[in-house]
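Kindly review this protein for my students:
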Amino acid sequence: MSTVLSNFESWKKFLGDRVDAAKNMGIDEEAISKLAYEIGEFLDNKVDPKNEEQRVLKELWDVGDESERKTMARLMVKLAQHS
């Protein structure tokens, strides 16, 4: 997993693959976004950013309120799907 986290493009591909797998299992967009939010909370609390992109995301996450964080999570899912 450390290789995935160290490169932002690898992270987007990893996340996109997981989103595709979840959709293939019949998980809806709302549930995927909720899970992305929970992953974002975990990463914020437990993982030190490994690159500039992750550091920017962490800084945005840290200043955002819950609603803004949920929006960021949904946007990360969209970004991953288009990568």
Summary: Helices lie at 2-6, 8-24, 29-46, 52-63, 66-81.
